[in-house]
Amino acid sequence: MMNKEELAPHVKEIARVLEGRVKEEDIERDLDNYLNVYRMSLEASRRHIVRKYGGDPNALTKGERKTLAQLGLNEGSVDILARVMSSTTREITVSGTPKTIQSGVLADDAGTTVKFTVWDLTKADLQPNTNYLIRYAYTREWNGQPELHLGNRVVVEERPDDEVVVPEGISIPSSGGRSAPQTVKVSGLQDNMYNVTLTGRILSLKNREVDTPSGKKMMFSGILGDETGRVEFTAWEDFNLREGEVVTISNGYVKGWKGIPRLSFGEKAEVTRPKIDFPSAEELSKEAVRTIEDIERTGGAFDVSVHGTIVDIKKGTGLIFRCPECNRVVLKGVCQVHGKVQQIPDLRVRAILDDGFAAMTVVMRKEVSENLTGITLKEALEEARETMDIETISQRFEERLLAKPVMVRGTVMSDDYGLSMTASEARFVTLDVKSEAEALLRKIEVI
Ligand SMILES: [Zn+2]
User: Fold this and answer.
1) What is the pLDDT of residues 266-320, one digit of tens each?
2) What topology is assigned to 292-434 in CATH?
3) How far is the CA of 317 from the centre of ligand 1 (A)?
4) Share of the chain above pLDDT 70, in %
5) Which CATH fold topology does 76-163 show?
6) Which among 34, 100, 157, 248 could disulfide-bond with 133, CB atoms 3.0 to 4.6 Å apart, if both were Cys?
7) CA of 179 to the centre of ligand 1 (A)
8) CA–CA gap between residue 401 and residue 410 (Å, rounded)
9) What is the pTM of this model?
10) Taking ligand 1, which is a single-atom ion, which protein residues have CB atoms under 5 Å away?
11) Which residues, other chains included, contact 238 with Cβ-Cβ below 8 Å and sequence gap of 6+?
């Protein structure tokens, strides 16, 4: 349980984002309620309150998570997960006063390296051969390259050894710098990546003939998986691929569709068959859990699972009616395209899922909605007939879903309104109160 004193900085932060439109005591009461009664996480509660009063939850303090290769030359606030390859301290003089700073080189999974400087050793003291999650850092240009700066806002957390595994044989420059090509995992793929090397098992494969300017050509597509997830791929040449085999694809590239990364490889690519232990196809078809923030970073994701809390139920949830011609939702039996139609009843959930750091829309079709709410279309129709009101179903959906922790699985795409998942599965999860509490405590300590 968080006491008044611990809530105070968060109340102030929410009040800042809401520009003083809401009294601090109201914010405090809400925050206490969501945290201690609904047992929502601290971040989800903060975001929910801001949203509730019409503010923008993204205005809350939060660094943006990036890979080292994605770092711009002038980032204001960025989060990085990386390994310290080298680190030294030295004395400098700032305005006549001696000061100890630290500098060195960071590397990540992709083998990208970046030079860093720590300006306040009481905030961060980075040890070589150690992994860190570095939050609220910033970058400045140095010789045309980004250099990561850890200032007095920085929050550093040591992470387990297996969270960042730097590829062997990369050169560690004395002054940082970028390296190509990139070796990536499936969850690291995002639109417009080039010269990508990826190892995965082919989980499905099909071919079809396509017309190209140079005549008919066979094209191969399917799903490739590794321990971080699954991705759809297209091979524009015949690499003699076989379903079930493990391949390393070099010099592939990523083209996204509505933000969903898709791996492509053609004549410039090379496919090799490494003799390595690799998870089975069955293993690779299980839930690939990602955070919403991480999916935001890649713009979308194919067949992933997200754990979060339903913080809002959108209009169009519950019993709806569709046009038999075009499947659009109709109002009072009138389709905006086909006019008066014999409407078809359907069930749907449109909800906002928040995982504590970011939010996305989740859309559940009939079967998924029925399974999750326990209310079938048949029951909904009977109830609507009795009450002569379809709104009661929406209210029952809301009662069953709002503020509940769920696990949803599906493909996430992005549009002008942000991320949206079409769920193929959804289930309630019981919060592990102890680990949630520990996570909360960790957050309180660092904020
Ligand atoms: Zn229609």
Assistant:
1) 988 999 999 999 999 999 999 999 989 888 878 899 999 999 999 999 989 999 9
2) OB fold (Dihydrolipoamide Acetyltransferase, E2P) (2.40.50)
3) 19
4) 92
5) OB fold (Dihydrolipoamide Acetyltransferase, E2P) (2.40.50)
6) 157
7) 53
8) 18
9) 0.61
10) 323, 325-326, 328, 335, 337-338
11) 218, 220
